[in-house]
Amino acid sequence: MIIVLKKDAEEAKVEKLKENLVNRGLKLHLSQGEDTTIIGLVGDTTEIEPEQLQAFDVVETVKRIKEPYKKANRSMHPQDSVIDICGKKLGGNHFQVIAGPCSVETREQMVEVAEDVKASGAGLLRGGAFKPRTSPYSFQGLGSEGLKLLLEAKKATGLPIVTEIMSAAHLDLFDDVDVIQVGARNMQNFELLKELGKINKPILLKRGMSSTIDELLMSAEYIMAGGNEQVILCERGIRTFETSMRNTLDISAVPMLKSKTHLPVIVDPSHAAGIRFMVEPLTMAAIAAGADGVMIEVHNNPEKALCDGMQSLTPQAFDDVMKKVKKTTEFFGKVM
Amino acid sequence: MIIVLKKDAEEAKVEKLKENLVNRGLKLHLSQGEDTTIIGLVGDTTEIEPEQLQAFDVVETVKRIKEPYKKANRSMHPQDSVIDICGKKLGGNHFQVIAGPCSVETREQMVEVAEDVKASGAGLLRGGAFKPRTSPYSFQGLGSEGLKLLLEAKKATGLPIVTEIMSAAHLDLFDDVDVIQVGARNMQNFELLKELGKINKPILLKRGMSSTIDELLMSAEYIMAGGNEQVILCERGIRTFETSMRNTLDISAVPMLKSKTHLPVIVDPSHAAGIRFMVEPLTMAAIAAGADGVMIEVHNNPEKALCDGMQSLTPQAFDDVMKKVKKTTEFFGKVM
Amino acid sequence: MIIVLKKDAEEAKVEKLKENLVNRGLKLHLSQGEDTTIIGLVGDTTEIEPEQLQAFDVVETVKRIKEPYKKANRSMHPQDSVIDICGKKLGGNHFQVIAGPCSVETREQMVEVAEDVKASGAGLLRGGAFKPRTSPYSFQGLGSEGLKLLLEAKKATGLPIVTEIMSAAHLDLFDDVDVIQVGARNMQNFELLKELGKINKPILLKRGMSSTIDELLMSAEYIMAGGNEQVILCERGIRTFETSMRNTLDISAVPMLKSKTHLPVIVDPSHAAGIRFMVEPLTMAAIAAGADGVMIEVHNNPEKALCDGMQSLTPQAFDDVMKKVKKTTEFFGKVM
Amino acid sequence: MIIVLKKDAEEAKVEKLKENLVNRGLKLHLSQGEDTTIIGLVGDTTEIEPEQLQAFDVVETVKRIKEPYKKANRSMHPQDSVIDICGKKLGGNHFQVIAGPCSVETREQMVEVAEDVKASGAGLLRGGAFKPRTSPYSFQGLGSEGLKLLLEAKKATGLPIVTEIMSAAHLDLFDDVDVIQVGARNMQNFELLKELGKINKPILLKRGMSSTIDELLMSAEYIMAGGNEQVILCERGIRTFETSMRNTLDISAVPMLKSKTHLPVIVDPSHAAGIRFMVEPLTMAAIAAGADGVMIEVHNNPEKALCDGMQSLTPQAFDDVMKKVKKTTEFFGKVM
């Protein structure tokens, strides 16, 4: 961490700042320029926030050099992390497709979709039981009943299941869930992240709608700091000024994340686009950019879907996409 | 709600759509143009999401006419809501200043700051006991111990207290808190909002960093739909491309919210700017734009603050701002 | 275009509005609902702006149904446009790589880079002679001297050249340029666009840093309305809150643009990312998403580049990328 | 400027970098930490761009300490600049209201509006003759004919006129214009800025829709570097994700700009909001935040306005706002 002092910084105040820093156990390294003085901090600065130091009157600016995340940092763990989900691998050169409906609705729907996506080659089944909806008057999901239907679909097909948690209070209900998803709106629900750090189960952490890449990594760090290092990151589109799509898929986040962290990175083209016809090209782009998986919404009757029908593929359309996914992952050297 | 059909919409599919709509208890009103057909929906469309209808192949676009919030809607409640906090009024022509440190640190700090801000004219005391921090390695707040210190400061000064909740699991600890704050990161923590809807206590709901005005109102609606109508909205800056300030204060949100809802609207200039010298001009702008209150960070020793020191005012600086706040609110016809 | 009237719209004022609309040569189609009245406009609404109609007190909201662009609209021209540049085709299934330095610096540099990129398989040569720089104190480009050096490189290699224009006043100097580029900052320099509409030469139109997809198409329409229909669109990254990359590449813009327009769409991964290591994955993503070409910065000595060195590839690195580009375009059914 | 080297930077490459820096006439100041080495650059770094230095492999990051603008910098010119427009002062404690229609339409309209706004207390008259329109099919303004009508309105009322230029090629037509406006879309039309730097006339420079505060100051610097130091900056709303207003007024830009530059700063509440009812509260907020003026759209018949009718005030509504403007500027210590 580097502190640039103000040009006309008062001597006594600078001393007060230095004292504060030394008391934090840091070594200081001064560099006196013509009109700027720089203090380099040597030691563990992970716990220091630039904002704290900027409270000192004499400080012009503070710049962090090292990333504030440790366990998620690739420099600490150069090899790609590979997550094992009931024997299915995700990460490294292993590519997985997670497919299923936005929300769990009926037993028939879940089992039918599960069988369809399995037949097309999906490796994991998704489905929402607890649904974060903007409006209190929208369908809120079947809750624990939905989790039961998901487990029946798992039993029928053998596909591991991925589903979203909305509160740590529900954690007991997720015992048989294979991958717990944290949605974009809860990416900085730190109390939830802390609880998920205490369990031993893969966590699919979606990037918040307007969270930076570094904030996503800090949220992963919350889970990892608690002891659970099985975190899968998911880029699902960010909020921008563009209104012709639901969100703007930040495809650059894939190579950028992979340079910063060893954790696997997947893409959710369905939520990013919000429009059916874009799911295929964005899936292809995700594979080409180096993603370790994709998450695709499939519904056996999109027009009757209780949510997000406009972005769901029919099982037939999904099957067509999967044929291309298989060839394309192979072309880019991934194993499905 | 208006549905515009595609130019070449197949008759049979349009019938299927109409049937679906009628089954939802809606009356349809058709309008056949040269190359567009429009279906107007008559009835309660609050529970319908445009995305659901767009799943139908024949639908070109869906436009909501009425806002999806009811209880928060000014059209349902033309007079300004006035919230009573231990006898202090907020809303209508009543203006309140909420002041105090970012985080509760020690008994001395809290009591000292509380006495100072009271002497300067603040009506409520703020202080964070549970702190949402981007990094798991940053100071996380004193938790329940912090709540006790806040209550001691309340006892010493008589100022009602405002403090943030991060999980519904902590709700029991908030029994003696006067106003419960929901932070920007939890604005769409719907499980928390639902729980807050069940209690009888004012809720200070901060706008999410990248939440639209309508999403803020929908989150207020979550609380109100549960039965708790004492919601205070807070604009605290949104995330944009501009990097010279911490956030971009959306001052237009004040008159826009006041036209859409009867709920009181306050502004947090400290978090919006993130820089001390901007607190005063942004406070003045908030009053001028019609806000019902402001929330200002004050610390007796900003350089030793455990968080956000760079935006905290000293008690002396706060006192100077308050002298102007008193004159300015009076000029704009508000009562403090 | 659809006009929704306010619930309590005064009869006389509605008549005034209707009169205004009829005087514009439009037919009106009324639809009276329970609490909303809708006026559908039949006829050419291209010249009407929603804002104009919203000036009427009785109007609640105005919604455009048809896109306001005509010549760029795919519905008017279902086949992909293919642009011919000195015999090289771009668009349809023809993919082109445009490569070269950010700015033209010396004869040696230009000829050397041109020979290198040609050897690696680039189809067109780029290089900036007039440079739009944020600071007046930065290198502003060699101007007309730079254009001469570009033409020498063209002579030496046979590669058609692409270079940016910054003012219609310079148009005479661009007689021998093969493709004229309009930079992001000039995407809405309408006076320039009008002049480019009068010539007969391909125009490479870059999307503005914060322009919507529809605004990009409207700018293309400015050129096309003047008679020059040879427009190539270029996605080069948009401005968002994310700071770890220079810009956020909006990869979804590729399939979205291709659904809305027949014009070819290329991607500039160098400017989007602003960092060397991301050029290759973003190039792959662009191909996978359906782009018709890419524009890549190559410099024979990036450390001595007078601008944008940090995103320029060396000729060797470019050659590696091109080997993958050839295989990948072939895999996705494109011809180079 | 500070350069942070990579941890494992190769000695020989570091030497190459140092040589490059010394050749630019800079003195280097090294600071060797445990795992980071920092090079501080002493001398004039205005012409150096961080991107250039980041092209060097050994560079981890580059941080500018001093702002890259000189003439606009308050540190070079601590007193507020006051611009004199035909004897009317703008800046320092002088507040001006610029009012008039979005576009010049007829002689009657211009003279009528001019007389009205003068009677209400406006100091300058605005009106667009050359209009930047998103669509080539929208009304493009009356051009030179419009300028004549503006001059007639000036003759009739004595109000100095402010009008927008869209191309340096039109400069001759602006001889009798008192203040030349550069619109948001042309804020980085550098060729135009350079030409405006050569004349001796106040320039009203509007902030680009997604330009940072520093970019605005760099564009002002373009004009000032040419010799014309009469630049008035205008905040007119930025583009964000929020859709309930046309733009998001960045009110914080007012105090932030005033801390960075000595140039006067005005606000355009009409374009920022795009909705009539918000013009008054945003005008009040602008005054309270310290703006030196506002620019308000007034039309004698908004429903017949050829553009932007929905945000124009009638002369009566403007008169009401002006009564409050007079009292409020006085309250905040400004002179009109």
What does this protein structure show overall?
4 copies of one chain form a homotetramer. Chain A has 336 residues and is an alpha/beta fold. The first copy, chain A, has helices at 11-23, 50-54, 107-120, 144-157, 190-196, 213-225, 253-260, 269-273, 279-289, 315-331, and strands at residues 2-5, 27-32, 37-42, 59-63, 83-85, 88-90, 96-100, 124-126, 161-165, 179-182, 203-206, 231-235, 265-267, 293-297. Chain A folds into 2 domains: 2-63, Phospho-2-dehydro-3-deoxyheptonate aldolase, domain 1 (Alpha-Beta Plaits); 74-331, Aldolase class I (TIM Barrel, Alpha-Beta Barrel), CATH 3.20.20.70. The first copy, chain A, contains 10 helices and 14 strands. In chain A, the strands form 3 sheets. In chain A, strands 13-12-11-10-9-8-7-14 form an 8-stranded parallel sheet. The longest helix of chain A is centred in the last third of the chain and has 17 residues, at 315-331. Chains in contact: A-B, A-C, A-D, B-C, B-D, C-D.
Give a short synopsis of this structure.
4 copies of one chain form a homotetramer. Chain A is of the alpha/beta class and 336 residues long.
Task: List the SSEs and their pairings.
The structure is a homotetramer of 336-residue chains.
Chain A: E1 2-5, H1 11-23, E2 27-32, E3 37-42, H2 50-54, E4 59-63, E5 83-85, E6 88-90, E7 96-100, H3 107-120, E8 124-126, H4 144-157, E9 161-165, E10 179-182, H5 190-196, E11 203-206, H6 213-225, E12 231-235, H7 253-260, E13 265-267, H8 269-273, H9 279-289, E14 293-297, H10 315-331
Parallel strand pairs in A: 7-8, 7-14, 8-9, 9-10, 10-11, 11-12, 12-13
Antiparallel strand pairs in A: 1-3, 1-4, 2-3, 5-6
